[in-house]
Task: structure prediction
Amino acid sequence: MTQKTVLVVDDEADIRESLRDALDDEGYAVFVASNGKEALALLPALARPCAVILDIIMPVMSGTEFYEAMLATPTLADIPVLMSTSDPSRAPGRVPVMKKPIDLDRLLAAVAALFLIPMV
Amino acid sequence: MGASASLGELGRDLRVAFDHRVQFYEHDAALYRVVAEFFRAGHRSGEPLIVIATELHGQGLLAELAASGLDVDRLRRTGELTVLDAQKTLEGFMVAGMPDRDLFRAQIGGAIEPLRAASRTGTIRAYGEMVDLLWREGYAPAMIRLEELWNELGQADGSLSLLCGYFISSSNDVTQAAAFEGICRTHAHVFPSEGPSMAGDSDGDSDARQDEVRQLQQRARALEGEIEHRKRLEQALRAALGERMRAQQALRESQQELMDFFENAVEGFHWVGPDGTILAANRAELELLGYAKEEYVGHHIAEFHADPEVIADILARLGRNETLKGREARLRCKDGSIKHVLIHSNVFFRNGEFVHTRCFTRDITDRKRLEDELRRQNEDLTRTVRFSEMFVGILGHDLRNPLSAIATAASLLGRRAESDKVAKPATRILNSAGRMGRMIDQLLDFTRIRLGKGIPIEQKETDLAEVCRLAIDELESAGEARKIELRAAGDSIGLWDADRLLQLCSNLLSNALAHGTGTDPIAIRVNGTDPTNVVLEVCNAGAVPPEIMPVLFEPFRSGANEKQARSNGLGLGLFISQQIAISHAGSIEVVSSETDGTQMSVRLPRNTRGAEPAFGSAGDYPQ
Result:
C-alpha cells in the first residue's frame, strides 16, 4: 500500500514536531515547513497521495498566500488542505478548518478524511 | 375763546370821553335796582331809554321800573323806552367771533338815532349787557372790542349815557382778573358789585374820586380773588412739585439701582450700537478682559473677538432681531490671552431702529479647559481601552499557538502512554489546555463584541436538539458525572450557526452544572412546536441570588459567587451566550426561585437573519 504523505506547515516548532510525531505514529510520511515559501519549495517533490496541514499566520509567506499559489499551480492545485489556525475567520472558503488549540484525535480523523476525497 | 395775560392791556390807551359806566353785580336783584335808578334819573331829565338785555333780565328790569312807579307800557308805546334782545342784537354784528365795526354802528346807531329827537337834553340813556354775554361765555377779547366800539360811538356822538352790567362771581378767577383790567379801562365810571348803589348822575372831582375809589374797590376785590386763586394754585403747585420731586427721587433711586446692577453685576455686560461700536461695558466685563474703560468702550466689538467670522455672524443675527442664547465665542484679553465666553444677547429696537444690544458675557474659560482636559482624558482612555482590547485580542491569538503545542503534545503523550502514570497527567494537561482554550475563545469573543463587530455567525440548516446532544456528549466525555436529561419536542431545525449554538448550549449547561444545587439532573428541553421560534430551556435546582439577577448577563460580573465563577471561567459565558442569541435575532431570559429552581430560556427564530451587535463600538482590530 502506498504511504500517504502529509506536509505540516506551521511557524510554531513545537506544533510542527508534535504533529510530525503524531502523524508518524499513524503511519504517514511527514514533512514539515515553517512558512509558505518553504512549503511551496517542498511540495512539488513530495510523493502522492499527499495532504497539507496549513497554519495561516506565518512569517515570510502566510498560509493564505501559499494556498493561492498552490491553486495557481496546476500540478499542486488538487492536493487537499486542512487549515489549522488560531483565527478561523481568515481561512478561505471551502477549506476544512480546525481551530487551535487542536484536538489531536479530531485532527487525525480530519487528515484521514482528506485522503478519502477523490482527486480532481 | 379764552382770556390771555394781555387782556388787561386792552383799551389801555383809550380815553373814555363820554358817560360810559360799568356796574359789576353778583345778584340780578341788585342789578335791577341800579339800572332802574339809572333809568329813573334819565326819565326825569326827559331822556329816551333803551334796554339791550337778555329776555330774563329785560323782564326783571321792566318789573323793577314798574315797581318804582314808571308806566312801562306807556313808555314803550310812546317810544320813550325801547327794549332789545341782547343775544339777537349781538348776533347781528358778530363776524367770526368778533364784533364787526360797521355792522355794529349800523345796527346800534340805527336803533339810537331815531330816539334822539325825543330827548329833552339830547342824550340817550342806554343799558346794555351784550358785553356781559361775551364775558360770561369767555370771549374776553370780543368783549373788550365791543366796549371799544361803544366808546367810539359815544365819543363821536357825545350824547350817549351808557351803563354796562357785568356779572362777577364771588369766586373770581384769574381769567376774570385779567379781563377786569380791560373792562375798567374802557369805562369812564366803574361801580363795584358791593359798593354803594349808583345814585343817579354825578359829576365833578368828587365823582372822579368816587369812581376811582369804586374802581380801586373792585380791583381790590379782584386782586383778593386772584390772591386766593393764586394761593390755591400755589398750594396745588407745591403739592404737584412735592409729588414730582418724590417721583424724581424714586426715579433717581431706580436709575441708581439699575446703574448699580449694570456696573456691579458679577456677569459681564455690554451694549453694542448698530455699527458694532461698544457703547457701554460694566466692571465685570472690563475686569474679565483686563481693559480700562476707554480701551474698550468706543471701540468696535470685533477688535476683541479672536474669531472674526464668529462676531460677524453674531452681529448679523442680532441685526435680524434674533436672540442669542449660549453662543460660544473667544475674546482677546489685553494681555493677549484668550477667554472663552458664553454670550446671551438680543437687541433693543426703538421704532424699528436698532438702538443697542443687551449682551451678557459669561466667562467659561475654566469650564472649557476642564472640558478639553476631560475630552483629552476620554480620548486617552478610549485609546487605552482600545489598545488593551487589541492587546487582549492579539495575545489571545498568539496564545493559541503555544497552547495548541501543549495540547497536541499532551494528547500525543496520552496516546503513547503505556501506563496511567503517564496517561493521567497527560489528560490533566489536556483538560487544562482545553479550559484555557475556552477562556481564550471567550476573551476573543468579548473583544470582538467590545469592538462592535459582534459575533459572526454562519447560518445553515441546524438541528438544535442535535447540537444539544453534542454538547452533552462533550461534557460527559470530559468527565462530567452529573446526569443531564434532554427532551425535545416538535421540529427543532432552523437556520443557525451550529458551532455558536454548541458554544451557547455548552455555556448554559456549564453554568447550570456550576451553580445548580442538589442532586437532581440538569434538564435541557428543546421545544420546536412553534412554527416561528424554537425555544431551548436549561433548568437546574437552586436560585440565582437576587443581587446577581440584574447583572447576570453582564461581562465579568461580580458578586457573592465571584470566586466560584472565576474558578470555572472568566464570567463571560452568559454574556457571550446572550450575544450569540442576539446575533441570531433571538433572546435569552432567566426565571429563578428557590422553589422552582433556575430556568434559562433561549428563543431562536428559525430563519431570521442575525441582528446587529448589541454591545461595544466600532474598532479597527485586524481580523
Observations:
- Chain A is about 35% helix and 20% strand.
- The mean pLDDT of chain A is 91.
- Chain A has one domain: 5-114.
- The CA atoms of residues 49 and 86 of chain A lie 27 Å apart.
